[in-house]
Amino acid sequence: MTEGKPPARGHLLRLLGAGFGVAVGVGEMIGSGILRSPGIIAGSLHDAALILALWAFGALHVLLGVNIVSELGTALPRAGGPYVYAHRAYGDIGGLVVGWTIFTAHLAGIAAASVVFADFLALLWPAAAGHGALIAIGIQLLLYGANSLGLREGRAVQETTSLVKSLLLLAFVCAAFWLADKAPPAAFPAPAAAGGFLAIVGGYQLIKGAYSGWDAPAYFAEENVSPSRSIPRALLIGLVLTAAIYLLVNVALLLALGVGGTASSGLPFAIVLERVAGNWASVIFVIGAMVTVMSCANANIMVAPRVVFALSRDGLLPGALQDVNEGGSPYFAFALTAAISLALASTGAFRLVFGLIGILTSLSGLLVDIAFFVLRRREPDLLRPFRAILSPWLPGLLALIDAVLLVLFAVGDHEGAVFAALLCLLCVPLGFIAQRARLRAAT
Q1: How many CA atoms does the CB half-sphere of 149 hold within 13 Å?
Q2: Residue 93: in which H helix or E strand, if any?
Q3: Which of 108, 59, 408 is nearest to 211 (CA)?
Q4: Model confidence pLDDT, tens digit, residues 269-317
Q5: Burial code of 261-290, b = ≥16 C-beta within 10 A, e = fewer?
């Protein structure tokens, strides 16, 4: 589909490049996770070297994923990202498991980010306190409105907010380094004794959550002008930028506050800014946090309807969800996504869903790892503009790591494990229903 022609049903506009891919990847990854997790992790581990090693391991873990998604995304450049690969490898049932998992994760992400935005706005504007649900709905409607106009508008919002929040975080790093050089960290009570191996697993689960969304560029492969070149570049550059920011932020916090100071607050950023900026600290922090979560919400809002679009195109949802307006937005898919995420934000039910996201995304990630090997074996002649490096060793290492992490997360989250099992069982009858519907339509 060329940029000058209006799209037909099931056809999206091609006008994206690597720049947008980097922006949406950074937008999804950098959210409330980096704002809140450093204090929690420092409190459970209280070892600076171990903390930094876990953040670095998280980057290497994602890099293994970039290796295989670069191959899958360029071999199957369609909207929907990981769902497309799972559906191609496993059929309707496996596709539904991955599709509903990632769609649910993004819905919870939209609702959570909008509610966090409302919480921070109340700190800046006290009159907003007590109206969190209305503000969360309002910011969602604003972002949905911009994205429903067209792909260009959504792209502009994402690129702008991703750039601004990256610059703000880098400015914070500079301020923290300046503070660390000016005076040694203040004395803070030492955190409680570390919890050992389980504490490391729990800390890494938070880090894995902070890196989630790294594969966002793959969801837009069908709208990319040159996916075979842009997708691998966007995935790699987005990861490198985010990992560098994450490591710099943690180093800066640990130098400025020490492990005890970082662990003393759920928002250690605020402590640093208060010591650097004084009375302006709260304003600076709140504005930066609001831009950060708004950018994350917009990235999720752009991704989720692409999953719905892909499910509809494969006959797993009603065909109307493939309708695309002149601006290149699947507007019925946006409407469905908005209806659910607005309801989640207004009721607070997303908190239950959000608590289960870690194990659900681990499950879908492992299924995508296995899909890589299934497609390599079943479709050896499939055109692969990018081939995974050191296959099968690096992809095999990734599958092993993801399998071990899934088991560890399930042991620590029995409720999430049960929910994931029920989701898989529910997809079995839904898959058979979809198959029968397609057979009836064909005859």
Answers
A1: 11
A2: helix 92-124
A3: 59
A4: 888 888 877 777 778 888 888 999 999 999 999 999 999 999 999 988 8
A5: bbbbbeebbbbbbebbeeeebeebbbebbb
Q: Bridge partners of 229?
A: none
Q: What tokens does 276 get? A: 């650097």
CB distance 245 to 59 below 8 Å = no
Query: What is the distance of C-alpha 197 from the center of its chain?
Result: 26
Residue 391 is inside which H or E element, if any? none
Q: Which CATH number fits domain 18-374+387-435: 3.30.565.10, 1.10.357.20, 3.90.79.10, 1.20.1740.10?
A: 1.20.1740.10
Whether residue 213 contacts residue 25, with contact meaning beta carbons closer than 8 Å, is answered with yes
Domain ranges of the chain: 18-374+387-435
Question: Shortest CA distance to 26 belongs to which of 210, 173, 176?
Answer: 210
- Using CA atoms, how far apart are residues 29 and 34, in angstroms rounded to an integer? 9
d(CA 356, CA 416): 5
Q: Are 245 and 170 in contact (CB under 8 A)?
A: yes
Verdict on whether the full-model pTM lies above 0.85: yes
Reduced to 3 states, what is the DSSP secondary structure of residue 318? coil
